Amino acid sequence: MKKIILLFTLAFIAQISIAQKTIYYTQPEQLFNRGKEMFLGGNWEGAEQLLKKFVAGSDDTYLSEEAAYMMAVSSFYRGSDNSGYIMEAFLDAHPETIHRDQVNFLIGSYHFDKKEWQAAGERFNQADLDYLTLSEQEDYSFRSAYTQLQLGNKEEATRLFGLLSQNSNKYRDAAAFYLGYIEYSSGNYAEALRRFERLQNHPEYSEEVAFYTAQATFFDGKIEEAVSLSEAFVQRYPASEHLTEAYRVLGNSYYRLGQASRAVSYYERYLSGVDRPLRGDAYFLGLSYFETGNYSKAVQMFQQAVGEPDELTQNAQLQLGQTYLRLNQKQSAQMAFEAASRNNFNPQVRETAMFNYALLAHETNFSVFSESITLFENFLKEFPNSPHKNQVNDILAETFLTTKDYNAALNAINRISNPGRRILEAKQMVLFQLGAQAFINGNMNEATQHFNNSISLGNQDAKARNNAYFWRGETYYRMGNYSNAASDFRQFTQNATSTDENYSLGWYNLGYALFKQQQYNQAVNAFQQYISAEKTRNRPEYADALNRIGDSYYFNRNFNEAERFYAQAADINPSSADYAAYQRAFVMGLQRNYQGKITALDNLMRNHPNSQYFDDALYEKSRALTMLNRESEAIAVLQRLVNDFPKSPLASQGGVQLGQLYYNTGNYQQSITAYKNVISNFPGSDDARNALISLETVYRDMNDIDNYVKYANSLPGGMRITPSRQDSLTYLAAESVYMRGNRADAESAMTKYIQSYPNGAYSSDAHYYLGVIADERKNQDLALSHFRKVIDAGNIKFLDNALIYTAQTEYGKGNFRQALADYSRLANSARNATNKQLGQMGVVRTQSKLGGYHEAARAATELLSNSNLSPETVTEARYLRGKAYQQTNETDNAMADFQFVANDTRSVYGAEAQFILADTYYRWKSYDRAESQVKEFMQKGTPHQYWMARALIVLSDTYLAKGDEFQAKQYIESLKSNYKGDEADIQQMINERLNN
């Protein structure tokens, strides 16, 4: 301390000396002395004013430095906001000043007051304690100690507080308090309590001591004592800033003491004082709510306890699952159990969570990515001695039957070395379902293989085996293998009971398979079995079966029975009775009841003006009128046929008949016109050739052979007279080679024919067969070239097949405009309903590809007006129409189509429709409907997992929009863990949401 005493002695002598000489001082010196006196007297503002005037009028370097020092210090003591900068400026201007230590101490104090701990510590370190006054040394030591405590340097803070507690009267109690606090914060609770004990009645520190004493007691594990101390603190200091923390301690303590109700009471007071509870306390409060039956609030707390990956999060997720079960929210419970099972901080928690997750995935069928199978397998591997082992083995067999990912199920079954009967039952059903799935998606060969494998397992699951017979029969039928189809349908009907959902359809399908093989007597029996078994008479199949019975009797020339069943069919389903009405009329004609035939045909045309049999009805009416020798009426009917249906195949036959009738009535010019129309409109056809032959007769009777020869030789399509016989013989020889199956020789012969007769009468026929040969050899371009010539020639015999090939090929190549032209022509000119529907479907597809959405919707609506479409065609047509309606902003219509398509999620259209519905509801901000839609999708399941992944992303976004961030994150994390696909867009969407 000698340095400090010396400084003060010198200062005292200087003051006496100055006082003795005051009367001799100049004016500036007087200002300095008066300012200094005010400074020493603590009049900081007055000192600053006088010292500023002194500095302004003095050139004394030494006194100016002293004045600057005193002004800087005065700025600090009077609380100037920029005093720190003023003192720093003084040190910068006078780096050798004897006041450096005091100024650094005051700059440190300036930062101390502003809680700028790092800056304060740096300045305190630049001040030498020995050069400060005794009072300053005490302040310095305390402030430095407190600063080190704030900087986390507990060891240095402890040293400085220790010195103060021993040597400082001013800071002894404060130092003791902070030493206790340091022991408390370091976990030395017994030592902390010892230090706090003597300060418990201290007027300044009693509140803090009471609080930290209660806290230290709690952390020391003395729960009951902590409760007593905390309750006393709460009562004594109701306005304390530590009240919220005291409530937390009480809530935590009472939970540990098993008093959940009291824990809830204090924890709720704690919650009212914080923005977000500590995770551990959120967990304990969640447990308290759970134990008191308040499950909704328990969910909220457990969600807040979930945070960074650690054991607390894992436990909270497990408890969330248990709580959701109490609320009967099984899907949410499943997600929580899944989240808990992903971590292994606590193996026992993982085991419990994994078991519950797998159990719920199986029970609720929310195993959208076959998680339950993988989970049960992994569970048995990871926990082979689990008490749940036997239950898991039993459930695994059931899981194979409930999953929609049948490939995953089959792979899992095949991994079982010695499968028991229950597993084999499941395998038979899984193989059947794989076959049905392949059938729905149009993969007939794959479907057949799966059905074969299911049937080959015997009677492990008799229902699955019999269903496999039914659907394999359907598959064979679609492939044109009617013999095998009939065998399978017969096997199905023999084994099925009348309560089987497909029992009646089995007879119906058997009838068709026999009908296709022209086994009409057996077909009648099968169709009649269907009629007896079918309970719902308004099904389209019922009227159709009556029609087929009628057809069978017709082909067996039992016309009376045929007419009777056609009449029944028309009565059963009047809205689509046109076929039955037409056939009935036709049979009347065969029975020579021509007037009855005419009346029936007139009724048909009147009742069904848009019937596809309208042109047939006109043609047959003309024949009936002819048979009644009412030729003028027949001419009028045929004229209507060729005028109203110029592209109909019957227009060519009707044209020939019209020419004959005009000839019979002596109207030669009208006859010539009719025959020429057939030749020009249907070049290359048999009817055109017959028309030319008949035309020769007309011209001969008119004695005008020259004009006939001139006309015939002007024709471009090989109708010339002279070489026609050789032309015909050459082609027929080539066709005979083709029919014998010798493709190489047939190709050579057809090519030679075309070279010899490039415009021959049969050139388009030859081009057709050459196109077939080229297609068989996978030479698509050559096949297209030949089929185009068939189309250009308008060869009716092969036009449908040529158009089907070119349309499908151009579509496959992406030439959608050309494909559209071909499909449109097919839809307008097809000779049977099947080809017409194929053309209509092609128009819908190509218009959709080309962006012609209005036309796509119109074409789809026209196609869907048919009552005999296959389910697959209906699904695709409504899907494409829904997509078109989306583009044309006809939202209600679009949603109606998607809702229909979404019923069957086994097809890719159904799966995408489910996603579209959910996504649309989300975009409409109809969040409850979006959530419900995705959950319905999850319940149904699908093999098309890309669309399930997209739907789950919508569900996550929906929860986020509803403010449920926890559920939103859980679904995205579940998707990331369980989705097996590697599509870049899915991964990007997952990562974006997790990052956000």
UniProtKB/TrEMBL annotation:
The keyword Signal applies. Residues 1-19 form the signal peptide. Gene3D superfamilies: Tetratricopeptide repeat domain (1.25.40.10). Keywords: Lipoprotein, Signal, TPR repeat. TPR repeats lie at residues 244-277, 504-537, 543-576, 652-685. It comes from the Bacteria. PANTHER family: CELL DIVISION CYCLE 16,23,27, CELL DIVISION CYCLE PROTEIN 27 HOMOLOG. This is BamD lipoprotein.
